[in-house]
Structures are given as structure tokens and as C-alpha cells.
Amino acid sequence: xxxxxxxxxxxxxxxxxxxxxxxSGLPGLLDAVPAYESLYIEFDKRALTLDTLTGWLAAWTxxxxxxxxxxxEIPACYDGEDLAAAAEFSGLSPAEVAARHSEQTYRVRxxxxxxxxxxxxxxxxxxxxxxxxxxxxxxxxHSLAVxxxxxxxxxxxxxxxxxxxxxxxQAAYDPRREPAFLVQPGDRVRFVPQAPGAPxxxxxxxxxxxxxxxxxxxxxxxxxGALSLVMNRGRFQxxxxxxxxxxxxxxxxxxxxxxxxxxxxxxxxxxxxxxxPELTVLQECWLAVTGLGLTALxxxxxxxxxxxxxAQAGQRLHFRPNGQGRVSYLAVAGGFEAAGFMGSASTDLxxxxxxxxxxxxxxxSAQPRxxxxxxxxxxxxVRQSAGQTAPLELRLIPVxxxxxPEPALLGFSYRVxxxxxxxxxxxxxxxxGGEIVSEGSPVGTVQLPPGGVPIILLNDKGTLGGYRxxxxxxxxxxxxxxxxxxxxEVRFIAGDTF
Length: 498
What we know:
Elements: E1 2-6, H1 14-22, E2 29-34, E3 39-43, H2 50-59, E4 71-77, H3 83-90, H4 94-102, E5 106-111, E6 118-121, E7 136-139, E8 143-147, E9 150-154, E10 158-160, E11 163-168, E12 188-193, E13 216-223, E14 227-231, H5 251-260, E15 269-273, E16 278-281, E17 285-291, E18 294-298, E19 301-302, E20 307-311, E21 316-321, E22 327-332, E23 362-365, E24 390-396, E25 413-419, E26 423-427, E27 435-439, E28 445-448, E29 455-457, E30 465-473, H6 478-482, E31 489-497
Parallel strand pairs: 4-12, 24-31
Antiparallel strand pairs: 1-3, 2-3, 4-11, 5-6, 5-12, 7-10, 8-9, 8-11, 13-16, 13-23, 14-15, 15-22, 16-21, 17-20, 17-22, 18-19, 18-21, 24-30, 25-26, 25-31, 26-29, 27-30, 28-29, 28-30
Helix pairs in contact: 3-4
């Protein structure tokens, strides 16, 4: 996967450019995410050359109405926790704050942070409160908030440091609704004040991706494990809505599970974290388990790593942590039956797409499949211990156009403090960090917050980020990173310029 940043278009035209690019039919185009000053583009360089892409971008011209967007009116109650602080900051009364904020027309510059969160400008100058010094651990869903020149809506409960002026009475995002997203980049928004005391909107309910009654039930969940999620390759061409890429943390291990069973490349499977589920086999089926985190046991008998095996009705499958890694994959012949959302069955917990496995749940295949012969892989990386130092090739990113990249991270060693589907957080030497204008970044980006300790972004990262970047980890090195347990040493080695 190749990434490119395009800056040679007027900022207000970037949403229209992104939409036109995604509808262009260019082969190999994976995503286009507009931000304040740039368009972030991902593409498969085997199908689309950079020259072809930049040639198309340079030739694009906006239509007469492409930059205008829709006008969307959103009812809102101005009764937020920070309304009094906004009044004190501005020298206005709370009622005047509400009137001043609601008489403005806002432009949606981007969606990001979480699914459907609109970054809108421009908040009236007298209401441009700075971000809170201490972010809240939980901001309620549907909160209407400001930070500097920006106004935004928290579609789901999330941590955040914006100032809460009130709440909307229409959901900015709901995956059960058509359309799921109330506004899109380029739209204009007006807030319509409502009488105080209007009942709050309920939080959005997750959209189930696994059916309650699969066509061919194969497994019953007795215990769900620590975190067991349905995944396929990921959700592409949806970053402009703030949806995360999702997909397997270790795509190499997931692809091997799929290949062992001869399944289609995008067949849904389960990603198992740290401690796997306990499952009862309901009818004969073929299963495959890959990844470094867990050993599969069928009726207590360990199965070979990276193998496919036959399971009989009534047998019990469970998993034992083996201390070699953190993520494993369970595939079934034919693929697990799962529904899609915007082209993918991958779970996005922040976006309300899918849930972890639940006790009593039935898992099945959309079609019966029988494997004639099981195959076993033992790739070279399986023989590596996850406790060894992980060398991570760092592709450097120029600080600005025409400036050389800063190899600040090279030569240092770090240790993994913790890791989840959003990021790997490291302990070790600090390097210069800080903030930038928010824009998209690929999976594997090394962010440098003001504290200077690097964070490596993973599949469930936000679609937009506002911290300095120290480079990007080569995709081939990400599997050994995501399999790292706490305390593992990692070091950055020089790669090509990004």
C-alpha cells in the first residue's frame, strides 16, 4: 500500500475532489480522506502508479456546485456542561452564547476522530474556547462542542477535550439508519435551538454483523474469551466518513488461515486476543488456527500451529495462551456467515459495527464446505520468538515540502508498554514532538505527541491525526509488532523515504 498527500487544491474543494476521485474508477484506489489542508490518498502501487494518480489529480476541475455542499439543519439544545464557561469567556449570557453559536453557518471540513464526527468551521471568534486542559474520559454521545475555531458533534461516547455547549436532537451517525451519516465533508450546517428540557437522544445501538440464526450452524460459544471479533480484510474507501480501516491486526496470519481452507480472500474469520473462546462443535467441519498468541486444543489435544484440522460434532475447542504473541485467528471452511456494512464484515467497536462474541451465540458458515486435504504452513516468522528484539523498518516522512526528513527515532530502542487495536504505546527516549494540522495517516504511522514518546498507529486509529509524525513502519514489519507482549524491545531501522 502506498500513501500520498495532495495539497495543490483549494481547501474548500478537497471534499469534492475526494468524492470525484473515489468515483473515478481508477484501479487500485483504496481511500481518499479530505482534511483541512490536504487530501490523504491510499492506493495499491501494483495497480495504480503515482504518476497516473497525480496526473488525474492535476487535471481535475470542480463543477459549478461541487464546493457548495448541502445545507443541513440540526436541532440542538444549548444546555451543556461548559455553557457557563463559554459565557464567562465571551462576556455573553448563556442565552446569548446559544443565539450567537446557532446563527452561524458552519462548513464541514472533515469527518474523523470517530465515525461521523464532523469537524466544522468557523465558530464565532468570541466563542473560540481553547481545548480543556484535562480531557474528559467520557463525553456523552450527541454532545455539541467547540474547540478553537472548530465546532463538532460527538456521535458516540468517547474521550475528548472539547467544550460542551449542548447536545443535538438528531444523531450525527447511526449505522442502523439510512443514510448512516447525517452530514458529509463539504456540507453546510445550521443549528436550530430547541426549548430547554427536550429529552436526550439514546446512544446508538451497535449493528450486529453475525446472524442470530446462521444458515449452517457449526459452533456454539460457551465462553467468549477476552476479545473475539469477526474480521475480513477491512473497510476500504470509507475513511472520509471517519470509519476506521479495521481488518486483522496481523494480516499475514489471517491470510494464512484463509488459504489453509481454500476460502475466498475476503471470507470472514475470528480474531482472538490474549485468551480465546471456548466453543462446542455442532456438526463436522474443518477449522484453521493461525497466529502466535494461542494454541488450539480440541477435546484437550493441542493442534499443530498454523494448521487446518477436522472437528467432529460434540467436540470442545478451546485455546491456551502460549506466551509467544497476542493475536490468533480462527477460520472455518467456507468462511463465517456475517453481514457487511459499507463493503466489509470487519468489526469496528468504536463505530458500533459488530460486537465481541457472546456466550450462547451460534457461529456458522454461509454455505457447507468440505476440505479434501488439510495443509500446514510454518512460515519463517513463526519460528521467531515474540520475546526477541523486533527491528522495525521506519520509512521517514519529510517535515514539509522540500525539507529532508528527520531521522530522530533511528538508533533508539523502546519497549512496548501496551498495545491494542488502536495503537502500540512505547516506553523509551523522548524525541521532539508536537501538533500539526490534522490530516490522514496510514496504519503504521509513528506519531510524536508533545511528550515526545512515540505511538505507533494501528488498524482502529482515528482517520485524522494532529500530532507530528516520525515516519511509518514498513507494512511487512507490522505483524511482529502487533504480536508483541508488554516489555518487548523494538528498535527503528532506516528505510526508504515515505
